[in-house]
Amino acid sequence: MSHSTPATANGNDSKKFKGDRSPCSPSRVLHIRKIPNDVTEGDIISLGVPFGKVTNLLILKSKSQAFLEMASEEAAITMMNYYTPVTPQLRSQPVYIQYSNHRELKTDNLPNHSRAQAALQAVNTVQSGGLALTGGESLLLTAGQSPVLRIIVDNLFYPVTLEVLHQIFSKFGTVLKIITFTKNNQFQALLQYADPMNAHHAKVALDGQNIYNACCTLRIESSKLASLNVKYNNDKSRDFTRLDLPTGDGQPSLDATMAAAFGAPGIISSPYAGAAAFAPTIGFPQAGLSVSGIPGALGPLALTTSALTGRMSIPGMTAIPGHSVLLVSNLNPDVILPHCLFILFGVYGDVHRVKILFNKKENALVQMADATQAQLAMSHLNGQRLHGRVLRITLSKHQSVQLPREGHEDQGLTKDYTNSPLHRFKKPGSKNFQNIFPPSATLHLSNIPPSVSDDDLKRLFASTGCSVKAFKFFQKSFQQAPYQGQDYNDRKDRKMALIQLGTVEEAITALIDLHNHDLGDNHHLRVSFSKSMI
Questions:
Q1: Residue 365 backbone dihedrals phi, psi, to 5 degrees
Q2: Torsions phi, psi for 491 (to 5 deg)
Q3: CB neighbour list of residue 291: distance below 8 Å, 6 or more residues apart
Q4: Which CATH architecture has domain 321-416?
């Protein structure tokens, strides 16, 4: 079959898409369907270049199809693994790739052979010489330049996920692997491109840019590592060319070799479980970045916060309903109640419904108001301890939490909080949106009546089993005080305080038990996590 012409071969390849035949076995020839009419040889070649040398090409525009031959079957398999979960695009249109029936392309006698070969030769010259054309100027990359970037995110006001990084950096080339971790209390990542030139372009364009408006600043430098060794596919590390990797719950993302390459020990933070394949909820604009000469650059990275709603307003973002439901596992079934999860997750968004699973009471579903709030809650609460257990949180496949049918009693395991007066984020423009912090041992207290003393509050928190380490009332000037749960226009004659407890787990338990606690004088205590210590 390998000696038949690709024009004839094309008939065999295209027919199978009309039925339900199983995909072909691996081949170094790839069959691409539904290509745009204005596609060029360079466009087709660009799909394969990140994964290895492209050795031949055939475009059949009348059939909206093309064939791409890689130098090795291994390169073709890597390419297919990468594009299986991610639909590739040519000229902003989706195309579809699978293995061809054919083992090689024979195009010597076809009309466009010389044109295709010229395009291949041009690409191979750039690849072997390390010459990248940027803005009309030749840029010679240094020999042995690494395709790996080290990324530090400063001023981490909103959580930055692996998916967000992938979406940003994919604008500059094919991202093969990402590992995220925390070092020196800074969120960092290692990101490997298929091509060192992509890494160079991304570094030039993105270093110093903000992911969100005035925060989450990218600091980027070239890594000394030649490649990344990713052992697990989860929400902390990902190899986009290997779909077969385990999630490796609780295992370190970096192996010892890469940890040593970074120098000091203690840089590894254990990844959370699950969430291996949830789609990014954030779409970035495609307009040109204000950095000249960078091909394929994404648009302005400074994303706005809507003054009207207080929620992040991100161009192109679509809140997929299914992404607003979280699956919470490893709960303590002896003490957990829907109300506990409503209060805790309510720190990061408005909880609409909670369902503790009837047959597996260590698991629960929590439905947030939107996808952004679900992502915030998952980022901050995954891995935290509650009632002696480490919480595991992923996005659920469910679109919403179903209420029990009328007449069916579920022992109070499902609760609807859609219209709860305790929602922290229902007021448009609320300052609460700007005061979302990770769980900490120090809690911020507000809405305290003048009649309640520091000793009263210490005794109250001690009654929940917490050890009170320190306590401090704020001064009467509230202008600079960070707090949550009360808007500025409602602070007259209200007192605020910080209370430091023994552990973060104690603080989480105390927040659940005492938020909205009646202090008398028509004052209900408001509790949130503090960004500062006493």
A1: -110, 135
A2: -110, 5
A3: 204, 205, 297
A4: 2-Layer Sandwich (3.30)
Sign of CA dihedral 194, 222, 298, 186: positive
**DSSP E strands: which ranges in 351-491?**
351-356, 364-368, 385-386, 389-390, 392-395, 414-416, 442-448, 468-473
Superfamily per CATH, domain 431-529:
RRM (RNA recognition motif) domain (3.30.70.330)
Per-residue pLDDT of 263-290, as tens digits, reads 333 222 222 222 222 222 233 332 222 2
Distances (CA, A) of 213 to 170, 171, 431, 481, 518: 21, 19, 16, 22, 38
Give the relative orientation of helices 41-48 and 113-129 as an angle to the nearest 10 degrees. 50
> CA-to-CA distance for 237 and 327, rounded, in angstroms?
20
Phi then psi dihedrals of residue 468, to 5 deg: -85, 120
Tell the residue number behind the tokens 């503790």, with chain if given.
Answer: 356
- Alpha-carbon distance 446 to 468, whole Å? 17
Phi then psi for residue 251, to 5 deg, are -90, 150
Closest by CA position to 366, among listed 384, 388, 340: 340
- What is the model's pTM? 0.45
Angle between helix axes 196-206 and 162-169 (nearest 10 degrees) is 100
Which of 3.10.200.10, 3.60.20.40, 2.40.240.10, 3.30.70.330 is the CATH number of 142-316? 3.30.70.330
Cβ neighbours of residue 456 closer than 8 Å, sequence gap 6 or more = none
Strands across the sheet containing 414-416: 392-395, 325-329, 364-368, 351-356, 414-416
Cα separation, 286 vs 284, in Å, equals 7
* Segments in 412-517 forming alpha helices (H): 454-462, 504-514
Half-sphere exposure for 468 (CA within 13 Å, toward CB): 17
Cα angle 396-399-403, degrees, rounded to a multiple of 5: 100
Query: What is the fold of 6-129?
Result: Alpha-Beta Plaits (3.30.70)
Counting beta carbons within 10 angstroms of the beta carbon of residue 445, is it exposed (0 to 12), middle (13 to 18) or buried (19 or more)?
Answer: buried
Each domain of the chain, given as residue ranges in start order, spans 6-129, 142-316, 321-416, 431-529
- Within 8 A by CB and 6+ apart from 32, the residues are 44, 47, 65, 66, 67, 68, 95, 96, 97
Please write down the HEC assignment for all residues of 84-137: CCCCCEECCEECEEEECCCCCCCCCCCCCHHHHHHHHHHHHHHHHHCEEEECCE
- As a whole number, the mean pLDDT across the chain is 75
Write the pLDDT tens digit of every residue in 63-118.
999 999 999 988 888 888 878 777 788 887 889 999 999 889 988 878 777 788 87
CA angle 210, 241, 383 (to 5 degrees): 60
Q: CA dist 322 to 315, 316, 338, 376, Å?
A: 20, 18, 20, 15
